[in-house]
Every structure is written in structure tokens, then in C-alpha cells.
Amino acid sequence: MSPSTSSGQALLEVRDLSVSYGGIRALRDVSLRVEEGEIVALLGSNGAGKTTTLRAASGLAPYSGSVFFDGNDLRKCSPDQVVRLGLGHAPEGRRIFTRMTVRENLALGAYTVRSNSEIERRLAFVVETFPRLEERLSQSAGTLSGGEQQMLAIGRALMSAPRLLMLDEPSLGLAPIVVQTIFGVIKSLNERGTTILLVEQNAQQALRIANRGYVLETGEMRFEDTGSALLENPAVAQAYLGAAPIG
After folding, report:
1. Are residues 80 and 168 in the same domain?
2. Residue 218 CB coordination number (10 Å)
3. Degrees (nearest 5) of the Cα angle 195, 44, 167?
4. Section 55-84 average pLDDT
5. How far lies 118's CA from each of 80, 114, 121, 232, in Å?
6. 93, 179, 205, 221: which sits with the fewest CB atoms below 10 Å from its CB?
7. Residues 80 and 176 grouped into a single domain
């Protein structure tokens, strides 16, 4: 593992994170950091602990260790307070409310906002980011295609105006052309100022856009390096990319 060369306070810093479910240890002493303005990929096989890491940061899973966001100790925060601080989370499996309209789903993402004008401003940003959703605002979310549902899940997270957006498997189960759209949006959001922590089964795609990456293996951190270096790492390529190193 290549140590991080960053110094000072990261936007998100996870230190010695351990999580257990019953007698099963899901994470053991995991540490990572995300600097403001970065895209950081968190990779690993199924069951490696990627989703658990994001759930712990969001306050949705009990843990030992520490998680700091912009200097705030998240152990002292409820999940809604975490959102208010600026940490957004689009979970694995989308978790949309299928019987509610697209607009209602998006409005739920802004539940911490009291100003109607601010909610409308954020809604305008989301439909600018995902024009398809503007055409579907009055539809039930359950009538959307898989790709549209993923756009809705990300859009709902964006309604909280996060400084750091955690995305859990945003391309899972989507057609290749939709995957390209989703990755294009991730890059665009980052270029417009949103820091990204990306859990993604498409490791090659993730590392191509990531500044840095981490690889989890059975709940422990195995590799840390720049995205390009991880693409070229023979051990990572063999175990996680299913190919020889990519130049």
C-alpha cells in the first residue's frame, strides 16, 4: 500500500474504522481520506466492506474508530445532521419510493431545507444535470427505467447540495450507454465543485476518472494509490480488473 502524501485536514477522514454485524467483522481498522475537490474510488469484491464504509460515514451503521467531515466528529451526529453538514449519499440499490412521483422523491432529498425558493433552485440544478428527469417529474418513480431510477437516486442526493457525494454502485445493472452517461455526470459534478467518493463494481471506469483509489479486501485495506497507478498495478489488475495491467 502506498501511503497518502496529503497533509493537513481532509474533507472526509476515516481512521481505524471497524464494524461488526453480530459476530462477523465487516471492517477492520480501515483508514482513508478524501481531499476537497477529489474523486476517490473505493473498490473491492462483493462483501469487501465498501457499502459498510459508506453507511458508517452516513451514521447508518455503528462503528468503532472515527469519521471526521470538515473537522466535525460524525460519531456525535445523527444521519440528518450528517446531511446538513454537507455529506450526501446515494445508496446501493437506488432506494427510491416507487409509488411517489419523481418530483416527490427529489423533494425528499431537500428535507433539511425550509425555503421553497431554495428547493426550486436545487430542483432546477438536478433537472439540468439529468434532463430526462424533467420530462418525468409527474410520473411515478416506479415507472422509470433502471437508468432513470439511478439518475433519480443521484438527483435526490444532490437535492441536499452536498459538498461531498458518496455514490454506491451507480452503474450496477445498467446498459453500457447509460453507464457512460452516469460517469459523464460524475465527472461534470466534480468539475463543478462536488467532491466524490465512488464505490463502483466497474473498477476500470472508476479508476480512469479517480484522482486516487483504495482497494478493500475482506474488510481490510489492501491498496491505496493514484487511480492511474492502481490501473497499472499487476496485483490489482489480476484480482479486481480481470485483466493485465492497463497502460
Report:
1. yes
2. 14
3. 30
4. 94
5. 18, 8, 5, 44
6. 93
7. yes
